[in-house]
Design a protein that fits this description.
single chain; 398 residues; mainly beta; Neuraminidase; Lipocalin; 2 domains; 51% strand; globular
């Protein structure tokens, strides 16, 4: 399972729940479980960390073209359905299902890749309109004929410096946009990229038509893969790939986690660890000490942390801040050290944020790694208000 050891760096983003997609409920998905979108069967399969099927769901929703999966800062699992223009979200007990079906006039036509961005906005690759759409605000990131050439927009992700990166499957290009919507660069791939994943502070591309996964050092060799689609990094720092044509989920370099002929694995997402947390410190403009509570979601494989503070006094009510950063591993002391930050966007004045955490691991010989507790420091600033202090986990939620 520990086939590929990764050390990650990326940029931090401000996130909040997207009200149009959410339902009620607070059930939790099991930490570290892998979720697989099986396109040919219109269902989502949950696998435990040994690759054993736990359950499947979504088959009653009549998805037509089930595609990408991702977890939001609210703990829900989001799914795109390309051929009927739907984006759905699930909670673990399935009681709070919600979905939105889009019309082409909204800018969403053939939703494929999903990623959350600043302000809690959900960005969607709109493949039939050759664009990326911020479905929360309605803003479109369009093809620019003088510079960018997106044809068949497929994958979408965010770079370490907060730029939006979109893949053009038919035009064999990667186009990078600022979050204000301006094309910044264009790179020829010659490989037909369909899914994008950011890890190791570097980009990985799944190029199904070329039957290869491309990393920072070039194509990754794996004879078990046939038409690779989505990629995911697991909590034990393994690299997963959905192998569409032979019905497999493969672990690099050469192992099979799951196999079912004809199932059509296409999208992957690994569930985070979630904890209730306590923040103690000072808030500018408020006398004395401030205590806040909230929920911290942590993705060890992707090295991402979501922090959603409960409503309370000051300028940091609701929503969530997302930190991407470094992780250092000390197996002898069973510690993981995380340092992450959110880069501010000057044009919108969104918050600056810094987070440093020391995670205590819980691992028995021969077993999978687990997270036991964490403590650290935090700094948030927004519109002149500053919250600064300590943070520690109080209760494990999943």
């Amino acid at each position: 399972m520990r086939a590929l050891r990764l050390s990650l760096l990326a940029a931090g983003l401000l996130l909040a729940a997207s009200p149009a997609l959410l339902g009620a409920g607070s059930a939790e998905f099991a930490a570290g479980h892998l979720f697989v979108a099986l396109k040919n069967q219109g269902r989502i399969l949950e696998l435990d960390r040994n690759g054993n099927p736990v359950r499947s769901f979504g088959q009653d929703k009549a998805f037509n073209g089930l595609w990408d999966l991702c977890f939001g800062p609210d703990g829900r699992l989001y799914a795109s359905s390309r051929d009927d223009d739907r984006i759905a979200s699930f909670q673990s007990d399935l009681a709070g299902y919600a979905e939105t079906q889009y019309l082409p006039a909204s800018g969403v036509d053939g939703p494929q890749g999903l990623v959350f961005g600043p302000g809690g906005n959900l960005f969607v690759a709109s493949t039939h309109l050759d664009s990326v759409v911020d479905v929360t605000s309605g803003k479109q990131y369009l093809d620019n004929p003088w510079f960018a050439n997106l044809d068949g927009t497929s994958g979408v992700t965010l770079s370490p410096d907060g730029r939006l990166l979109a893949a053009g499957y038919f035009s064999n290009v990667l186009v990078e946009y600022s979050l204000e919507g301006h094309p910044v660069s264009q790179t020829s791939t010659q490989s037909g990229p369909e899914f994008l994943g950011w890890a190791l502070n570097q980009l990985f591309m799944a190029c199904g038509g070329a039957n290869k996964v491309v990393g920072p050092g070039g194509a990754l060799s794996n004879s078990l893969v046939a038409y690779p689609m989505d990629l995911a990094v697991g909590p034990d720092l393994e690299l997963f790939a959905a192998s569409y044509q032979n019905g497999r989920v493969v672990i690099y370099p050469q192992a099979i986690l799951f196999e079912e002929a004809g199932s059509g694995p296409i999208g992957l997402a690994c569930a985070p660890w979630r904890f209730r947390v306590e923040v103690k410190g000072s808030l500018s403009g408020a006398p004395g000490k401030v205590e806040r509570t909230g929920v911290l979601s942590y993705f060890p494989g992707d090295v991402v942390a979501y922090l959603a503070l409960d409503n309370g006094p000051g300028a940091f009510q609701g929503g969530a801040v997302v930190f991407h950063g470094y992780e250092q591993h000390n197996p002898k002391k069973a510690l993981r050290l995380f340092t992450g930050h959110q880069r501010p966007r000057v044009a919108t004045g969104e918050p600056r944020a810094h987070l440093a955490l020391t995670w205590k691991e819980k691992r028995k010989k021969g077993s999978f790694f687990d997270l036991k507790r964490a403590k650290g420091t935090i700094h948030l600033s927004n519109s002149g208000a500053v919250l600064e202090g300590t943070i520690k986990t109080k209760k494990r939620l999943n």
